[in-house]
Write a structure and sequence with these properties.
The chain is mainly β and 300 residues long. It has 3 helices and 17 strands.
């Protein structure tokens, strides 16, 4: 696990609100080493938002590269047997770098996101080698309506989901950063991707991936109950061409945004996409701690 010590302090925060939020997040980070444990009283189900209802995509918006918003080219995103499927059987055997994303209808700032996914079948012909058994959860993202027609990925933080190839080590719930940077190990981290410390998950098994997001302070990636990556201070990368086009300020902290799931040329399924909204607790450290305690000890 990446060290949390001093994770917020490589850049001076210029306003009191951001600093206060960071102090709350530090309290939460110390508390929430893991999000699993012995079953105790469960958090109320009414506080969980089922982003995917298991029946249809009515709360979601599709944006695929080279296609307008809500053009679900090739019926890429679909629902069958209670599962959200990302498929390419109507692509006529050619992917042509038509990377796609499906966006939930609302933006969120502080939350625990839970996804259960699995990779199936074979990658479509001409899909990039790096995209084999590759998908992701895009966090703090821009809206689909603000994306250019030929834009491949939304400006966001990607919790990258990878499947094993049957022999090599390949971690999941990694971090990639299209148009963004983060602070990690007390330094501004600018490489495009970094691996987590997760195990490798081969074959078509279901995997539970979670992300704890506390506004513009701390973000933690969790796989099967183990914290595998920690970073903070998500911010815009002023060198990125899409960031420049959008007129976003280099280094500006990102406190909220869209959540989307990817299509990157390998079939993938999602059977659970749910979220516990923590926004209302962010100004009350004591209550936030209580809620995180319950989430830590919840029964699945």
């Amino acid at each position: 696990m990446v060290s949390q010590k001093g994770i917020f302090y490589s850049r001076q925060i210029s306003n009191d609100k951001a600093y206060a939020n960071m102090k709350i997040a530090i309290t939460a980070a110390v508390l929430l080493v893991s999000l699993t444990g012995v079953a105790q009283k469960n958090t109320s189900k009414k506080n969980w938002i089922q982003l995917f209802n298991g029946k249809d995509l009515k709360d979601w918006t599709v944006k695929i590269k080279d296609h307008p918003v809500n053009d679900n080219f090739g019926n890429t995103f679909r629902v069958a047997d209670g599962v959200m499927k990302v498929s390419y059987d109507q692509y006529e055997d050619a992917f042509k770098e038509q990377f796609g994303h499906i966006f939930y209808k609302k933006k969120f700032a502080a939350y625990l996101l839970v996804v259960e996914y699995r990779f199936i079948g074979d990658q479509i012909k001409d899909g990039p080698g790096w995209a084999t058994r590759n998908s992701g959860m895009m966090l703090h993202g821009q809206s689909p309506q603000s994306m250019a027609l030929n834009q491949d990925f939304p400006i966001s933080l990607e919790a990258q989901l990878l499947g094993g190839n049957g022999k090599d080590e390949r971690s999941t719930n990694n971090l990639c950063s299209p148009g963004t940077n983060v602070v990690m190990n007390e330094k501004l981290f600018t490489p495009h991707c970094v691996n987590s410390t997760s195990k490798t998950y081969h074959g078509d098994q279901w995997v539970r991936a979670e992300v704890l997001v506390l506004g513009d302070s701390i973000i933690k990636h969790i796989v099967q109950g183990d914290t595998v990556l920690v970073y903070g201070q998500p911010q815009y990368d002023g060198k990125d061409p899409w960031v420049k086009k959008a007129g976003l300020k280099d280094g500006a902290l990102i406190s909220e945004g869209t959540i989307s799931l990817q299509s990157e040329s390998h079939p993938v399924e999602f059977r659970k996409v749910e979220l516990f909204n923590l926004a209302k607790y962010m100004k009350n450290p004591k209550k936030l701690q209580q809620v995180l305690d319950k989430l830590k000890a919840r029964d699945y």
